[in-house]
Amino acid sequence: MLSRRSLFAGSAAVAALTGIGVFSPRRADAEAAGDFPVTLSRDEWKKKLTDRQFSVLRDEGTERAYTSPLNDEHREGVFHCAGCDNAVYSSKAKFDSGTGWPSFYEAIAPAAVATSRDFKLIYPRTEVHCANCGGHLGHVFNDGPKPTGKRHCINGVALVFKPAGGGDPVLG
After folding, report:
1. DSSP secondary structure string, 94-151?
2. Total domains, the chain
3. The domain containing residue 95 runs over which residues?
4. 153 is catalytic
5. Does 4 have pLDDT greater than 50?
6. Catalytic residue among 81, 84, 133, 153
7. Which of 49, 117, 152, 167 could form a disulfide with 53 if both were Cys (CB 3.0 to 4.6 A apart)?
8. What is the per-residue pLDDT for 125?
């Protein structure tokens, strides 16, 4: 049985480690260094994006499950980064993961997205972001369907869906 002291010490350690991950300077450093083809200042991103888009794309937030209309989008088309309009996922790779977020088994092209390690929840995860602007899209997990076995669990608010054959784009 855990003592109060052990529980408190463990909780403090978790909080400290979480804080390290949450306030990681990786994204800010990459943006400042101009590591992406599309680079804007925080103020420019704030003017360009909605508050929800900014929270996810620039501050690595997560939208609530089942809140994006793109989770139920089943038409043929292409999903673009809401920050820079980079094509990132095809509807052909979309599947219903049951998680409440739009999910894909692969990006539209290998160079469309990039990945990095994320320790915000203590254990390592693979973060996926737009290779064009560095915007946080979501995470990649190893529990997806064939042919890749991957599940790109993506925040809908970070995407814009453009239906094949035209039609109005759908914001996530």
Report:
1. EE--SSSS-EESS-SSTTTEEEEEE-TTSS-EEEEEETTT--EEEEEES---TTT--E
2. 1
3. 4-171
4. yes
5. no
6. 153
7. 49
8. 79
